[in-house]
Design goal:
The structure is a homodimer.
Chain A (H helix, E strand, L loop, with lengths): L12 E3 L15 E7 L2 E7 L2 E6 L2 E6 L5 H9 L1 E6 L5 H9 L8 H4 L4 E4 L2 E6 L4 E8 L2 H7 L1 E12 L3 E2 L2 E2 L11 E5 L2 E10 L2
Antiparallel strand pairs in A: 1-10, 2-3, 2-6, 4-5, 5-10, 6-9, 7-8, 9-10, 11-12, 13-14
């Protein structure tokens, strides 16, 4: 799967302070889950991913037993959670509907471009708005009984056009950088307007 | 806390098929968690609530050890997850910032009106767009180590103005019925525009 991977230099990507990494997921976006095992990369979509703790930051993600990505995560103990954008609507739906088990060229056929982040042997999906590098905290009972995986977030980055100074700026960023929130049957909502409570 | 509770008849509320209950949470809204113990009701806000399974429907919710709502859930084994609306922005932020431990009149002071749902000895928050009655699946290790609670959804209802025939209709319903998605510091996003992937 290395043919579609390239070293990607994107000046819009900046590290996010780990204590604020939960904010990348706090609004409940549908995410892409990527993992690498034995030189093979895979990416799937997951609507069931949620922050779990602030410091150190942790998250949960539900991974069906049928998915190759889960297999890779069980093998490597590492994965990336990333926040796809409205511009990636079709890509997100495709990687969530197709399996690497059926199509060795899944990523290419879904239009996924991967890039590397220094210091992490993990596949990062280009074009997303945020990335969280995760280290599995093995909890065999949760994994077997509920398909529920717990991980610590060990690195976080965001596209500074849409997330900077610890906050999302969906109202001022380009509209196609809004996060996606899946319902069912190919229907997603984009995140909308900002409101401040007193 | 019974003075603010009343039997509420709202013709807009209809049961949601349990197999489609996950759709009420799939887009990652911030929720209100309510519980009753020994005749006392409480309501808190939670950004970290997530679907876990389809059938029977299950969900996860993270409940800090400091909260009275968690105490009530540990005592009763039952709770309600409900989806608040833009119209409930201040209410949602207030029940998430104040504790019943400090103010016995928290619910009244936060503007919470409760109602009853036949067959369920639980407090339901009026004005929300969806409600899920939940039965705790005790997992002591998750609860103690991660503040993570797993429950089965045993009843689901929605405001038919904004959720019907198994789908949200945020684009056509009144704008103040959109769901809220919390970030931090009192800032929320409303859910936005609908998109369909091929």
């Amino acid at each position: 799967m290395h043919h579609q991977r390239k070293t990607h230099v994107d000046n819009n990507i900046a590290a996010v302070e780990l204590a604020k990494a939960y904010r990348l997921l706090n609004h409940g976006p549908t995410v892409l889950v990527s993992a690498r095992s034995q030189g093979i990369d895979n990416v799937m979509a997951a609507a069931w991913c949620c922050a779990l703790d602030f410091a150190p930051p942790k998250l949960t993600v539900v991974l069906d037993k049928m998915t190759k990505t889960r297999e890779f995560i069980e093998q490597s103990g590492m994965f990336v959670i990333q926040v796809p954008t409205v511009a990636q609507l079709q890509l997100t739906h495709r990687v969530g509907s197709q399996s690497l088990a059926d199509d060795a060229n899944k990523l290419l056929n879904c239009g996924v471009e991967l890039f590397e982040m220094a210091g992490h042997d993990l596949p990062f999906v280009a074009g997303c708005s945020a990335w969280l590098a995760c280290k599995l905290i093995p909890e065999p009972n949760n994994q077997l009984q509920y398909d529920l995986f717990i991980a610590e977030v060990i690195g976080a980055w965001a596209d500074t056009q849409v997330f900077n100074h610890g906050h999302w700026h969906f109202d001022t960023a380009p509209a196609d950088k809004r996060s996606l929130h899946y319902i069912a049957g190919g229907q997603f909502y984009a995140i909308g307007e900002s409101f401040n409570a007193d």
